[in-house]
């Protein structure tokens, strides 16, 4: 008999009972198993470290869970807890290798429970979990993430630090069994000796030294084995754009490149690409910390975008990556959300100047006009040319100067940066340079009269998009304004009709928050952005762009769930180079050039750094 349940007449009580008896839905199994592994791991670690916990009522439950085995229960419980914590994240992400590891370990745990502890309940629990994994094996089909051997070094540092910290807890967890009063240095020395399997200076009574020794040895063994595994497993290289992929993308840009100002940035060679079945559209991406990060709109024919987007989502699903798009246009946002069910959030605005409407006359351009005239009176001249028109010697000088004038040791940029200057395939790119003869009474620079550089990439046949801005630290302030004005004034000669400048993050909030009548929430949000501008160029970049009287085009971030936004933001900061988790080699640190610190800029001057640093700030 059907009854109404929460207003739904189509549901019957027997149906609900059958769903309960069938257990959790298949898509919920990975999260359930991962959460169970996390909880069991924490219990096992606590059971292996704290003697009172092992004697408590909670230990009666922990004894039937995988990890507390035989006479070496403390060390084995500790080891199992650490391994389960490491395994849980992979199971939650549907990783096939995590499933394989669990399927191998659970029978071993069941045998250990029955043979060593004669625990039928523990063996049955392990086998029940194994049966659940085998039944839902199709849910664990995600392929491995791109990886490199840097992770072995990162694992050694993280696991080593964690083992030392946990080892100090183990050494100090038996205060009534310690002989004497060893100092913190003695305890730390005991931990370090124990991780390598040697006896340290701290002594215990009643056999506790065996428990501590086995536990420390287990931690050291786990650190060594996981590091060795990561160091010698086959390396999966990061995404690289092949010559064939680049050729196809350039053909698409020749036909459809005028639609998006960020299209040429898809030619970065550290990105992967997926094409639509017809080959008429493509999505470029990079995987960072489990996030499959696309940038800008898809490349190619708008009608073929859904096919490329579907391939992108299939790739993300196959690896259990979190899909996200940074900086897509309003049209791109509509297509992404319509085809995938993702959500979109306005991220900021792109400043675009229409060359026909640009002029230095008028009160609104007074500050820029005065600055440019002052710099020109100081003896600076400018040149605006296509890359194809520069000689090899001058291109080499510009490349070396751009690298030396970079404000950070890390090359920044991803979504709005090309990462190269003067490539043979980028002959249509535009370079604007500022020059001034050195004073005979002052030492010359390695780059002669070259003082500043800005680089534009093509935006279709009649546009260009700003890619980087760099200058000599000894040059006068205002080099960026001088070169942008020079580029805009020379644009008609080069057949350029519109120029994309920087991307101003949260521009709308900054603009509305400073107006009369803004509400308290908007003012508070603007105040937070102004505060963050002390470390990131948020307000200063907006004001810098606004000086050229551009039109503003909104850009969006596309995401799956709201809880994914912090993870996506962190991955985007890694991709842009603001967060660097890789560990440089000692040789690279020793050979790295010492860079001078830039002076604090005036309020109206954008700090001299690459344009993609400015865009992504």
UniProtKB/TrEMBL annotation:
InterPro entries: LPG_synthase_C, PG_lysyltransferase, tRNA-synt_2_TM. It is found in: Cell membrane. The chain crosses the membrane at residues 29-50, 70-91, 98-116, 152-173, 212-232. Residues 27-228 form the Lysyl-tRNA synthetase N-terminal transmembrane region domain. Keywords: Cell membrane, Membrane, Transmembrane, Transmembrane helix. Residues 250-559 form the Phosphatidylglycerol lysyltransferase C-terminal domain. It comes from the Bacteria. The keyword Cell membrane applies. It is a multi-pass membrane protein. This is Phosphatidylglycerol lysyltransferase domain-containing protein. It comes from Streptomyces roseoviridis.
